[in-house]
Design goal:
The two termini are 25 Å apart. The chain has four helices and seven strands. Helices cover 32% and strands 34% of the residues. By secondary structure, it is of the alpha+beta class. 34% of the residues are buried. The longest helix has 18 residues.
Length: 161
């Protein structure tokens, strides 16, 4: 699960970097091949999210792991907030996945761009998830994307929403 969470963190950081300038996120799909080659594709068009979700669910030949990042709203007790939804999965014989939300405050607000603490939405494929270890792996992934991690850390709002 650590590899899945680490990859989720890397691509979540890329998503944060993408929305930090106020632009809308173009949904994207990151994946790792069996030979270790990692690549990313942006999803464009009217059905981009649906196509990305289907590709993510089914996987593709040669994929070992994949991450889908889309911009959405997270509905909380305090109201609706912008969030990146990060789905990450391992396509091995024991399919495992983690879904996270990274709430953020758009740069168009009077307070400017901000990133809130990520939230686990769902962990599947393990009996008792070690959330502390998953969070450590996730943030190791965030930190591994140096340029995006700098943006994330510069705009971190140290509070949960």
């Amino acid at each position: 699960m650590d590899e899945i969470a680490r990859m989720a963190g890397f691509y979540a950081a890329h998503g944060v970097w993408s929305v930090s300038d106020g632009e809308a996120l173009i949904p994207f799909l990151g994946h790792v091949q069996a030979d270790g080659k990692q690549s990313m594709e942006r999803l464009v068009g009217d059905d981009a999210v649906a196509i990305g979700q289907e590709s993510f669910r089914a996987g593709r030949d040669g994929w070992v792991r994949a991450v889908l990042v889309v911009d959405a709203y997270l509905h909380l007790d305090t109201g609706r907030i912008d969030a990146l939804i990060v789905d990450a999965a391992d396509y091995g014989p024991e399919q495992r996945s983690v879904k996270m939300a990274v709430p953020y405050r758009p740069g168009t607000t009077s307070q400017g761009f901000g990133v809130y603490r990520p939230k686990f939405v769902e962990v599947a494929g393990v009996d008792e998830p070690d959330y502390a270890a998953l969070a450590d792996a996730f943030f190791a992934g965030v930190d591994s994307h140096e340029r995006a991690a700098a943006v994330w850390n510069a705009h971190l709002v140290d509070e949960s929403v």
